[in-house]
Amino acid sequence: MNAVISSSREDASRRGWQYRLHIDAPLLVALIGVSAIGLLVLYSAGGSDMNLIGRQLLRLCIAFTTMFAVAQVTPRWLQRMTPWVFATGILLLLAVLIKGEISGGAQRWLDLYFVRFQPSEMMKLAVPMMVAWYLADAPLPPNRFQLLASSVLTIVPTLMIIKQPDLGTALLIASAGFFVLFLAGLQWRLMAILGGLAAAAAPLLWHFMHDYQRMRVMTFLNPQNDPLGAGYHTIQAEIAIGSGGLFGKGWLNGTQSQLDFLPERSTDFIFAVLSEEFGFIGITVLFTCYMVIVIRGTLIAVQAQDTFTRLLAGSLAMTFFVYVIVNTGMVTGLLPVVGVPLPMISYGGTSIVTLMAGFGILMSIQTHRKLLPT
Amino acid sequence: MIPRKLTLKDHFLEYRLFTNRVIILLVFCGLILLALFSRLFYLQVVAHEHFTTLSEDNRVKLQAIAPNRGLIYDRNGILLADNLPSYRLEITAEQVDDMSATLAALGEIIDIRETDRTRFEKLLRRKPRFEAVPLRFHLSDEEVGRFSVNRHRFPGVDIQAGLARHYPLGSLAVHALGYVGRIDENALKGLDSSNYNGTTYIGKTGIEKSYETVLHGEVGVQQVEITAQGRVLRVLQSTPPVPGRNLYLTLDSRLQDVAEKAFGDKTGTAIAIDPGNGDILALVSMPTYDPNPFVNGIEYADYKALRDDDKEPLFNRALRGQYPPGSTIKPFMGLAGLEQGITTAKSSTYCPGYFMLPGKTRKYRDWKHYGHGTVNLSSAITQSCDVYFYDLAVSMGIERIHDYLAHFGFGKLTGIDIQGELPGLLPSPEWKHARRGQAWFPGETVITGIGQGFFMATPLQLAVATATLANRGQRIRPSIIRAEQEAGSTALLPHMLQIEETLSVQDPKNWDTVINAMIDVVNSARGTARHIGIDSPYKIAGKTGTAQVYGLKQDEKYDAKLIDEKLRDHALFIAFAPADNPKIAVAVVVEHGGGGGSVAAPIARTIIDSYLQGGPT
Predict the structure, then answer these.
(1) C-alpha A319: how far from its chain's center?
(2) What is the mean pLDDT of each run of 10 residues along chain B (617 residues)?
(3) C-alpha span between B308 and B285 (Å, rounded)
(4) Domain locations in chain B?
(5) Bridge partners of B572?
(6) Helix (H) or strand (E) holding B52
(7) Please, which residues have CB within 8 angstroms of residue B103's CB and are 6 or more apart in sequence?
């Protein structure tokens, strides 16, 4: 088989610009689409503040540049770097925790003098990479020992991030690790055990939660309980979405958002602004873009040529879906309020850079494939 | 990685397995999407009417009510930080026909600067037209009066009252108190930002910053009814904010004032501490500055003047100034020598005016050119003989010097209850190796013996070490906050006294030897600070020090007049009094002041007199 595999440079020249530049056009188009919708909604949500748009645009530029840069890295090199990236991430998380102990408050940042860096962001990529790296060598499906080891690789960073406390990110990291295991073909029987363990851990998690986090869960279960306190967010968001109707109230015309009823409308609750001003149709357009990204991602996974890239690509695509669902589920009142932004739309955060780095990995996996004889 | 079992990977099987799993996941995603879209369909299509009604009737809004910031008092209840009513001018764009004409007309009766205008215009673009936007803060009474008379000419312009931080005593104790300023994005990092909805000010430095969470209080909410355009009609219900707690300091503002005035226009710092409980009685860093302009944003030119001032008024010398302790280290060195059996109270050394290491030619000179003759520990402290301590330091060795002086807290943070202090530097060969990658030289041990070289201490450390000496080893952590007080309550919630491990000695007489020598510094005919003891009604124990800023060559003579003022020596003095029953310990540093005895000691005397004779509280 080796004899017929040509060098990647030859492949690139034979397969056109996408392969030369290591760009996946369908993914890129969908990402640009989502970003454009995002800027439009943000302009309205931010009270027509051009400075805000400028800063978000700058952030998007950085994120897209990161994506292009990551896409140039070959998957083989990525695979070799994986254990180091993971180990560095764990050490940085530890540093953040220790610093947090000292300063006596929530601590997610590490001040690296020139830049403030959130190690939990790095783990969003490092955890699925590490689990995929670990499972890639052995025959699949993973046996009980491998399940245990993979769980440890996922749960340790997750717990460290819960401790920070950053429930949203912890959730995303746990699901990223889980998706790798699931895609690796974890037997249903073992999955049941895992599920049982997770259920058993739930009361433990409750114990570790901060008061405000417990309050959010209680509010989710019954928002009318405290309509002007913790339930205010959820109720106002529901009114915004519901009053938007099929076609929405029109851009810049959402009363809920423009009259300041909707809290955190530029960040975590921006989906409500979209729903109010663009209605059910607007949401459908956005979700079409999102689903193009998810399906393209899984397609890249299916076409990937070795276990590591296959598992990693699948997990990245699925985690992105979770990302979207956790936020939209929260805003529509289906899930409790967890601080997860709507990907590519919510204002701010370094998470957009990590997200795009993940898409860079997908593009790299897709465009570094060897040409197989047909 | 070695596979656990030697099983061959079946690529085809694995691929099929993977594809199956992807299909399962996609189906699962589909189901979740279905659920989400059902929910959206329900909200936006089925229940659309209901929510439209709710949205149109949505007349109840939440507004944050900022809590009143806690006040700060000195130990006697004198107000140091207050909240004063402050008037700001606001304009509601919607009600103004011609904005530029209005602004021009307003400019004739009220002072509106370019910066006010730019900020106003920036805010105007961001806020809805029905919302009032502030144009000027802190109107003077006259301006309020002038505007009130002309009010009919300005529809849509209004005066709003609020509370602004004010420091009634101006620059007094500014380095301890600090100041508040307007909140910016960076200020809220690490704080609960929702608690700051509606708050204007946040502590930027000093106690205002260190005790931000205590002083701030908790935000309140009010439920207001608004019109469809967003105007507030009435307040329906409110949860009042919890005001911040008041703070009572250990500082004595009267003593602080005396101490600051004692410096005149000299640059320097002084700390006065009660050895009995660690209370900081005065914390002086000169020159000072007025914190009041910072509250509403100091003009850039004024700030630049402060920042670029050669005397660095913004620099907190008391907590962050690191000075070579100079000869003030000698009593501590003496105790170290006695305790470790390296010297005795009786053994003597001949001082020819210089010291040489065995086999070396370099002369380490005494400040007294012709030498002190034969001296023992006591007279060496009294006359501040350098050669005695060069010799003692070499006999003790740097390791033992380091370990013993560390007991007095040198080289470590004192743990004072406000942020920002620096740890100074107590040198050791390990430190030098780690930080400079160089070996320790014997000559460096020699000058460490008189508190020069790498050795650095903050005035706070010197004061705490002096208090420890006054207490004969009892160490107490210094504190500046005496108590907190809930708003509306008269009960004080005292802060706990922090007693640290006592420095125990082999022989209690060693304390006497050192303390008696310090009494002689002030009270004997040859003491270096004798002129401050002449008419003193109580015994002061002290030690002068001179910290070199400028290194002299081998045979050069120090002449203050010939040296540029910036290179002149720092004058230091540490003291406690009354010597037999210490009530106050002080450390004074006068930058580029010259000799410790002539410049720093009189300031210490003034502080001590004021405290002991002005009636302790």
Answers:
(1) 6
(2) 55 86 94 95 92 79 83 92 88 81 86 84 73 82 87 83 88 92 70 75 89 89 70 76 92 93 92 93 93 83 85 90 92 92 88 86 85 88 91 92 92 90 92 88 90 92 94 90 88 82 84 92 88 86 84 52 66 92 94 80 93 68
(3) 17
(4) 60-85+172-249, 89-150, 254-288+317-481+497-613
(5) B545, B589
(6) helix B48-56
(7) B112, B117, B135
**Chain A from 230 to 259: CB within 8 A of any B CB:** 232, 236, 238-246, 255-256, 258-259
In DSSP terms, B79 is beta-bridged to B73
Which residues share a beta bridge with B273? Answer: B280, B585
Kindly report the pTM of this predicted structure.
Answer: 0.63
Largest pairwise CA distance in chain B: 104
How far is Cα B43 from Cα B138, in angstroms, rounded to an integer? 48
The β-bridge relationship of strands B72-73 and B79-92 is antiparallel
B472, B481 in Cβ contact below 8 A? no
Beta bridge partners of B456: B425
Closest chain A residue to the Cα of B4, Cα to Cα: A138
Structure tokens at B416: 């004072």
Give the integer Cα–Cα distance in Å for B90 and B158.
5
Name the minimum distance, in Å, from the CA of B190 to any CA of chain A: 7
In CATH, the number for domain B60-85+172-249 is 3.90.1310.10
Residues A163 and A297 in one domain: no
- Nearest chain A residue to B122 by CA distance is A49
Distance (Å, whole) CA A318 – CA B21? 12
In angstroms, what CA-CA distances link B441 with B357, B433, B449, B450? 11, 11, 14, 16
Secondary structure (3-state) at B220: strand
**Contact yes or no for B495/B507 (Cβ under 8 A):** no
Strand partners, B457: B323
What topology is assigned to B254-288+317-481+497-613 in CATH? Beta-lactamase (3.40.710)
Tell me the β-bridge partners of B249.
B481
A105 to chain B: which residues are within 8 Å by CB? 190
Q: What is the ipTM of this complex?
A: 0.90
Interface mutation vs chain A, best among B7, B39, B40, B118, most A CBs within 10 Å = B40
Interface of B with A in 43-102 (CB under 8 A): 43-45, 47-48, 50-52, 54-56, 58, 60-62
- Last residue of one domain, picked from the residues A152, A181, A209: A209
Residues B374 and B350 sit within 8 Å (Cβ to Cβ): yes
